[in-house]
Specification:
The complex is a heterotrimer. By secondary structure, chain B is an alpha/beta fold. Chain B has 14 helices and eleven strands. Classes of the chains: A mainly alpha, B alpha/beta, C mainly alpha.
Chain lengths: 485, 319, 305
């Protein structure tokens, strides 16, 4: 392995060699064989570390904070804004200085020593209470909103629909990533298949939403199997990359197959769902006409809201049910150790395929809903970023945790959207400040931080699927994730 | 002479014939043949690197052998003719009313456990650490439960047939937990158990698949003497009460000599001895292999021993 | 024939850029077994730094091209290397020893962060840069009117890639740093017991990968004359494909894979369809991973039971 003819070994400076020899000699005697380096005082060390961090931040951000290039007449223009840069450096210095001085006072570890997770012996009634509370809020939201925030009713309801769509997608992906331990980076492909199946069936054959919904789910599940079959032999990280490739291939095909999908123009005029044949409009025979109430556009939104809520709850119900069935237990076993699974007579290919297909099916349902809600779809909505957002929600919430997905969706989609409403921020950052611009930035950063700090996400305990006497939650440090491939 | 009466020749559950496994240029197992008797505890021993685990991996389907036949007879009544016919037919197994015979080298690993009934444990324990002890045993009953849940559909709606099967599976798991002394830890995550308990759990988990043959890869490794004794008890119980044949790899000679009905010794991928504990113990080739004596010296020792004991030491190896 | 030759030259140029990025993937995979998904973004950051340096130099009146190029490459390499180092330090090092998919997930998070960081600070619109190095050598001037030409820029890219490759191979095979790196690749724990500073070696691997990506980024900028915050994603996936195709963990493999992907892409767009050129790359990625995961020059993996 190491080549003995290398020159550098021989060219080592003599002084260093002599020093190491001296040390070796000293080792035979009494320890310590070399004097400890003089300890810096806490202040000096904090200053030093702060200085290094500041210098690093200066180098990193020089070309991003201090200078900005923009397209101008006759080429690019360069604007310098050193103030932001200097502020960033100052913050870095101060932050690092304070951290070193107060937090890391004892040891030199920077981030390495953070990994201590309490073994989960405590039970989680909080989780259950929170779950019931969230469910109650979700069920009554369309009633609560006009009472408390009538002016924001439509906007908030729409936001609620978006959040629930992500909750559903998160739950769907959670089956694949959280339970079965297969990192799927192309989940948006199934979302796209669901959306396009519905859109094409509806526009070409004039079928309604409720007829198409199961078909879209089946199509997506079928694609899950088709795409899943060749890749399931692959190891975890390779599988992730290939699913990404498949997702992108599907998007590019949708973009370029003009005759079939409308290419970048997408598909227009997708019908809205009807309530047992009653449509939501002002005409005769519509929902409002039938029930003899006054027409209001909000009725359609309330209806859409309850559809996605029902779909999401169905996803949750099925997932919770499956976890307690042999197939769900096999998913979790697969995540823990694939080889052990095979030694127990479990056909791991089938287990993976069912996970893929089930996850894809829910993605397909969500896709149909998206199409009917937007009434327009184009490949723009199905980029890798979308997959990454869904994955981020699952990762942040806690791999395998249903409640975590809800919390993460509400926080990341709803929270950032609501930041926009805070006038305080505009006062600080100026009028054109738009927090949604930073959404993906925060998403990315949060993914990194959560993984470093709490690799199994916000809700990281696992509750067992079968109980003999007493139900105990299982701490995050026990649960494996895609090991043993 | 003794041959005819030996269980492993007369009534083998597993016959390994001319098994060869090459990894590139390395020959890990070289033309190895042996039988495992029905209802026996058979030990596969040998110095480190002798190819024992490779044999295991071939038997359990994790490796595809380069050459050779590995036949498992689930029931006694399988004629040699059936086996020959099956080998020629290119099929994986024959499963009739009167008995089944399985060519393990042709079957994928999970099928070997599912259909042929061979279960195994691993040298470095492979439990589902984040799942409870009970869940581990339920995962092992996946195939039966899957059928009972009519492939999930019935289970999803909670049909009575599935509920009954699920309760039965739990009972079976509890039963085994009682036997391996882990019932009070049933709801703890498997990774939380001490080492010895994890070994026992892995054995219980393998047994939940209803095996005909149980393959244990160093079950006593890392156990203290008391735990070793308990392991012996457990293995005898498995053999006597459940009629499961056991094939084990072990370095702890105390365990091996005490419980084995039949011992096979490997060295450099070849069989150097095959017989009962007392036969193997006095075999000079075995002693030489373990102590690292030169080949010439072995011949010498052999000649001496031949004179003394009056039976050919190389007999076992020349099958 | 002329068309073919021209495509060949274009393909080799493109392949050189992919190859340089692929080295970063392959080295990191070799040493810590993770797919550094953010490496494409490192390449993108390199090209942005190079662009800004160019504009700063133009603003202060330095226009002598060799000096400009030299400064661009040095500053881009240094600053991008700092990015590589920092990313490893805060996002990957704390996760060593965590579950297997954890670093891949952080890498994806890092990639999203970097993309949006650049988008927020530099704007979402594309940045065009007029060609700085023009002209070239005409190799063939056929009567049919098709000219086969290799531009100076292409010559610079190919020459630069060759120089970096040779230097790099020497670094890995001859220096003590390279030896430490190979030792860590084989057995990290053993290497650390023998006194190799594993953390430092891994950091240096990221630093080297990032500086090569910075060179690739600068050459991309000069060759195509247009960059945006999104170029890292596609280029990253293609370079990763190159690394896998060549056999992940193998340096010559990365270069070979890069050339192969560059040629396939160029010929695909030249003879079939430009729209589906990314499909070609993605399909190759899937096919290679599924049917020959050890690539052209890689070692096959044996499943340990």
């Amino acid at each position: 392995m190491a080549d003995t003819t290398s020159p550098s070994a021989a060219n080592r400076p003599e002084g260093a060699e002599r020093l190491s020899e001296a040390r070796r000699d000293a080792m035979r005697g009494e320890p310590p064989y070399s004097e400890a380096p003089p300890e810096d005082t806490r202040l000096v060390r904090a200053l030093k570390e702060g200085g290094i961090t500041a210098a690093l931040v200066a180098a990193l951000t020089l070309f991003f904070f201090a200078f900005r290039t923009d397209i101008a007449v006759g080429g690019l223009s360069l604007t310098a804004s050193p103030v932001v840069w200097i502020i960033a450096i100052a913050i870095a210095f101060a932050g690092r200085f304070l951290l070193t001085y107060f937090v890391f006072a004892g040891d030199t570890a920077v981030v390495g020593g953070w990994k201590k997770v309490a073994a989960g012996t405590g039970r989680m009634p909080i989780g259950k209470i929170l779950g019931v509370l969230l469910l109650f809020i979700a069920l009554t939201l369309p009633i609560l909103l006009p009472q408390f925030l009538p002016s924001q009713n439509r906007y908030l309801l729409n936001l609620g629909i978006t959040i629930l769509t992500y909750v559903m997608l998160g739950w769907g992906l959670n089956i694949v990533v959280g339970l079965a331990g297969l990192l799927d980076l192309g989940y948006v492909a199934f979302y796209a298949v669901g959306a396009y199946s519905f859109a094409l069936l509806a526009t070409n054959f004039e079928l309604g939403f409720w007829v198409c919904l199961p078909m879209a789910g089946l199509f997506a599940a079928m694609w899950g199997v088709i795409l899943g079959f060749p890749v399931l032999r692959l190891r975890g990280d390779y599988l992730a990359i290939v699913t990404l490739a498949f997702g992108e291939i599907i998007r590019i095909v949708l973009l370029n197959w003009y005759e079939f999908t409308g290419g970048p123009d997408g598909i227009l005029g997708i019908p809205e769902p009807s309530f047992f044949g009653l449509e939501f409009n002002r005409r005769d025979g519509s929902f409002s006409d039938f029930f003899g109430i006054e027409y209001s556009p909000i009725q359609k939104f309330i209806y859409l809201y309850y559809i996605i809520l029902a779909l999401a709850l169905l996803t949750n119900f099925v997932t919770m049910r499956l976890r307690k069935l042999p197939v769900g237990r096999a998913w979790e076993a697969l995540r823990e150790d694939e080889i052990a699974c095979r030694s127990l007579g479990i056909n791991t290919t089938n287990v993976k395929l069912t996970a893929f297909a089930t996850g894809a099916m829910f993605g397909g349902f969500a896709g149909s809903f998206f199409a009917t809600k937007q009434q327009f779809i184009s490949p723009e909505s199905f980029t890798f970023i979308e997959s990454a957002i869904i994955l981020a929600i699952v990762v942040l919430g806690g791999l395998g945790s249903q409640l975590g997905v809800v919390i993460a969706s509400v926080a990341m989609i709803g929270g950032i959207e609501l930041l926009r409403k805070l006038t305080v921020l505009q006062a600080v950052f100026g009028n054109d400040f738009d927090p949604t611009q930073y959404r993906m930035l925060i998403f990315g950063l949060a993914m990194v931080l959560i993984m470093v700090w709490k690799p199994r996400g916000l809700v990281s305990t696992r509750s067992p699927s079968a109980v003999y006497k007493e139900k105990k939650t299982i701490g995050a440090d026990m649960v494996a994730q895609g090991e043993g491939h | 002479m003794l041959k005819e009466t030996q269980n492993w020749s007369a009534n083998p559950v597993l016959s390994v014939e001319h098994l060869t496994m090459r990894f590139g240029g390395l020959v890990a197992v070289d033309d190895l043949s042996f039988n495992v008797g029905r209802g026996d505890i058979t030990a596969l021993i040998g110095p480190n690197g002798a190819g024992k685990t490779t044999v295991f991996n071939c038997v359990t389907g994790f490796y595809k052998p380069t050459e050779g036949r590995i036949a498992l007879r689930r029931d006694q009544a399988v004629a040699d003719g059936t086996l020959a016919e099956l080998t020629k037919s290119g099929r994986q197994y024959f499963d009739g009313d009167k008995g089944g015979v399985f060519l393990l080298e042709r079957m994928p690993d999970f099928k070997i456990t599912e259909v042929a009934g061979v279960a195994r444990t691993f040298q470095n324990i492979r439990l589902f650490g984040g799942m409870t002890v009970l869940e581990n045993l339920l995962v092992a009953q996946h195939n039966q439960l899957m059928q009972a849940s009519s492939f999930t559909i019935g289970g999803l709606f909670g049909l009575p047939g599935y509920r009954k099967a699920a309760a039965a599976a739990k009972d079976k798991a509890v039963e085994w937990l009682r036997h391996v002394n882990l019932l009070d830890r049933a709801d703890d995550p498997a990774a939380d158990l001490p080492y010895g308990a994890q070994r026992r759990l892995e054995i219980a988990r393998a047994l939940c698949t209803n095996p005909v043959l149980l393959c244990l890869d160093e079950p006593a490794a890392g156990l203290n003497p008391r735990e070793s004794a308990e392991l012996n008890e457990l293995l005898r119980f498995i053999r006597d009460e459940h009629g499961v044949s056991v094939l084990l790899i072990e370095h702890d000679m105390g365990v091996v000599m005490e419980i084995s009905d039949h011992i096979i010794v490997l060295d450099y991928g070849k069989k150097i001895a095959d017989g009962t504990a007392s036969e193997v113990r006095s075999d000079p080739k075995v002693i030489a292999a373990y102590l690292g004596v030169d080949d010439e010296e072995v011949d010498e020792v052999e000649r001496d021993l031949d004179v003394q004991t009056g039976h050919s030491a190389s007999e076992g190896g020349s099958q | 024939m002329e068309y073919f030759l021209q495509q060949l030259i274009n393909g080799v140029t493109l392949g050189s850029i992919y190859g340089l990025i692929a080295i970063g993937y392959t080295m990191v995979y070799g040493i810590i077994g993770m797919i550094n998904f953010a490496h494409g973004e490192i390449f993108m950051i390199g090209s942005f730094i190079a662009l800004t340096v160019f504009l700063i130099l133009a603003a202060i009146g330095i226009t002598f091209l060799p000096i400009v190029l030299l400064l661009m490459v040095i500053v881009a390499m240094l600053c991008t290397a700092a990015w590589g180092w920092t990313i490893e330090r805060i996002a990957y090092r704390p996760l060593r020893g965590s579950f297997r998919l954890a670093p891949l997930i952080t890498a994806i998070g890092m990639s999203i962060f970097l993309q949006n960081f650049v988008q927020v600070t530099q704007g979402a619109r594309v940045k065009p840069l007029p060609p700085q190095i023009q002209g070239g050598i005409t190799l063939m001037d056929s009567p049919s009117g098709i000219v086969v030409q290799i531009s100076w820029m292409q010559i610079i890219i190919i020459a630069m890639t060759i120089i970096l490759m040779v230097g790099f191979s020497l670094l890995i095979s001859k220096t003590s740093l390279g030896r430490q790196q190979r030792a860590c690749e084989q057995d990290r724990k053993m290497a650390s017991l023998l006194g190799v500073n594993v953390d430092r070696t891994i950091s240096l691997t990221f630093v080297m990968g990032a500086s090569l990506a910075a060179v690739a980024g600068m050459m991309y900028l000069l060759y195509y004359g247009v960059i945006d915050f999104y170029i890292g994603f596609i280029a990253g996936v293609k370079a990763f494909t190159a690394a896998v195709l060549g056999g992940i963990g193998s340096l010559p493999g990365a270069m070979l894979g890069g050339l192969a992907i560059g040629l396939i892409e160029t010929f695909w767009s030249g003879y079939f369809s430009v729209e589906y050129k990314d499909v070609a790359a993605f399909s190759i990625l899937a096919i290679v991973l599924i049917f020959m995961p050890s690539g052209l020059l890689g070692r096959p993996e044996v499943e340990k039971v």
